[in-house]
Design brief:
It is a single chain. This protein is of the alpha+beta class. It has one domain (about 35-165): Glutaredoxin (3-Layer(aba) Sandwich). The chain is built from 7 helices and 5 strands, in the order H-H-E-H-H-H-E-H-E-E-E-H. Residues about 5-30 have low confidence and may be disordered.
């Protein structure tokens, strides 16, 4: 009986140790440390490697892509997002796919990674911009702010970009 109790205790303690161990190095390498502030596309993707798969799955409207590919003037898009934000998880990959398909060098994209706020905590300005919600896509045409997409697009990401650009300057 003493041997059985000792054996059971040994199994329980051994199992507990296995459960409490840290993740394996392979699991830890799946996501890089998330950086905050102005980040590169590579840093965006390193923080959420599954966004590449989500981008590959998205099928934007061909007519919108054709329009965006023809834009012949500077378009800057500042994107404020959070890896923790479900709307960012949904919309950033779509945006990346749109830019990839449009393949237009007139577009410049600037990414700003934003930390999650504690409940009741108020967010200060990011890059001198007071954000209403995350993500926020701010579109500038020829250096002037032309419009925003806040949280989720009205129609679709690509159609909202076309609307903002088309309502300001007609592409050549």
């Amino acid at each position: 009986m003493k041997i059985t109790i000792a054996f059971v205790c040994f199994i329980v303690i051994g199992f507990s140790i296995l459960i409490c161990q840290e993740r394996t190095p392979v699991e830890n390498e799946k996501k890089a440390e998330i950086k905050y502030g102005k980040v590169t596309l590579a840093e965006v993707m390193a923080g959420s490697p599954d966004w590449r798969d989500k981008a590959n799955e998205y099928m934007p409207q061909p007519s919108a892509i054709e329009f965006l590919a023809r834009v012949a003037f500077p378009v800057k898009i500042e994107i404020y997002f959070g890896h923790w934000c479900s709307d960012s998880v949904n919309n950033i990959p779509k945006f990346l796919k749109i830019m990839e398909l449009a393949a237009n060098p007139a577009f410049e994209t600037e990414f700003w990674s934003v930390e999650k706020m504690k409940q009741g905590e108020k967010r200060g300005p990011v890059n001198d911009r007071q954000l209403k919600a995350i993500p926020t896509f701010v579109v500038f045409l020829d250096g002037e702010e032309a419009g925003e997409i806040i949280e989720n697009p009205i129609a679709s990401m690509e159609e909202d970009l076309v609307t903002i650009i088309n309502n300001t300057i007609e592409p050549k």
